[in-house]
Amino acid sequence: MTEQGTADPERKARAPSARADATKKRILSAAIEQFTLKGLAGARVDEIADAARVNKRMLYAHFGSKEELWLAVLEDAYSRKRNEERLLEVGSLPPERAMALLVAFNLRYVVEHPEFVRILNEENLHQASYIRQSRFVKSLYPPLLELLDQVLLDGVRKEVFREGISPMQLYITIVSLGHFYVANQYTLSTIFDVNLMHYNALAEREAHNIDVVLRYLAK
């Protein structure tokens, strides 16, 4: 216990760090919104700073440049999705259940986080020139592919999956089934005169995606 009138050195050290972390989170949140709405070229640093309730100097102190902020947004987007994916704990489930859960998650995630789709689409317009700089994002996926490989091998051992499935190709297929659906929801809804975001339409699509993947994997 400190004497009255004497500052607690640990508390004093924590306070600036906590404020800095809170400021950084506000900037990142504002950046996600602006980049989602306007893309990398259209988003303005001063609008991001205003939305985060900081000045531009503070923003640059935390992120260095607009491009570095964009990379931080990309890393945050991938990290959030992978963190939720890990919570599924598919490695502890029967192989067919594990695959069904992973397929359903990847559809529902992009439905609930359309900003993820828009951010990835924007980065693809830039031919991955920013994410190419990130070792962090690349580090997120080898563990996932190893886990998928374990589930596939378990399915082969239990004679419910066929052999020779590439974990990478399978994962690309799984994410494509959800990503394309959300990225093209407006054009497809108009063409087929149906609201693809309606609960019933999503349930039908989820069942379809699971059926597609499980039939592909079936022995």
> How many structural domains are formed by the residues?
2
Give the beta-strand count. 0
Overall CATH class of the largest domain: Mainly Alpha
Q: Report Rg.
A: 22 Å
> Averaged pLDDT, please?
92
Instruction: Please identify the structural class as seen in this structure.
Output: mainly alpha
Q: Summarize the helix and strand pattern as letters.
A: HHHHHHHHHHH
Per CATH, the architecture of the largest domain is Orthogonal Bundle
State the gist of this model:
The chain is mainly α and 219 residues long. 76% of the residues lie in helices and 0% in strands. The longest helix is centred in the N-terminal third of the chain and has 34 residues, at 9-42.
Mind explaining what this structure looks like?
The chain has about 220 residues and is mainly α. It folds into two domains: about 5-65, Arc Repressor Mutant, subunit A (Orthogonal Bundle); about 65-215, Orthogonal Bundle (Tetracycline Repressor, domain 2). The protein contains eleven helices and no strands. Helix 1 (about 10-40) crosses helix 6 (about 115-125) and helix 5 (about 95-110) packs antiparallel against helix 11 (about 200-215). The longest helix is centred in the first third of the chain and has 34 residues, at about 10-40.
